[in-house]
Amino acid sequence: MKASRPSKNLHLRLIMSTAAALIAVPTLLVAPQISLRYLEAQAQSAEAIKSQEEEIRQQMLVMSRHLGVTCTTCHKTENFKSDEMPAYKTAKAHIKLTQTLIDSGLDGSRKDRPKADCYMCHRGQLVPDYKEKLDPMRKEPLKKSQAPVAEGEKKGHSKE
User: Fold this and answer.
1) Measured distance CA(121)–CA(74) in Å, rounded
2) Are residues 115 and 102 in contact, defined by beta-carbon separation less than 8 angstroms?
3) Which of 25-29, 101-105, 118-122 has the least mean pLDDT?
4) pLDDT at 156 over 50
5) Is the model more confident about 112 or about 22?
6) Residue 64: which residues within 8 A CB-CB, separation 6 or more?
7) Residues 11, 5: Cα–Cα separation, whole Å
8) What is the pTM of this model?
9) DSSP 58-89
10) Cβ(149)–Cβ(155) under 8 Å?
11) More confident position, 88 or 39
């Protein structure tokens, strides 16, 4: 029997399939790495978000202790980001005020400068016991009839 020689067509198919394999293999090797990098980045991003959420949660717990309240005082349980409750808006303004105090030097970095926080005024109560009787827009103290009245206090029944 005579050994048959592969046809030219077979040689051409072998060359083409080898070329295709040489092109496809690097692509297949790189694609999983790109996907893996993408997934790792997504996981790190999710971890960062989770870390931020945990940090915010811890700060909220500290604030709630400083004010003697629970989450539902300021937040709707169905949507914690909702600003529909008046206490939420007040808290947001007070957080900005506290941050301004910290930025102005009440950051606790020195012994003569305590760190500003909710407890500084509230002392564990939603409504502070004391309201300053000095109007910052005037030089002299307010008269008793002009002094602001803390919530829960009745006029003429000062807690002093």
Assistant:
1) 18
2) yes
3) 25-29
4) no
5) 112
6) 70, 71, 73
7) 10
8) 0.54
9) HHHHHHHHHHT--GGGT-BTTBTT---SHHHH
10) yes
11) 88
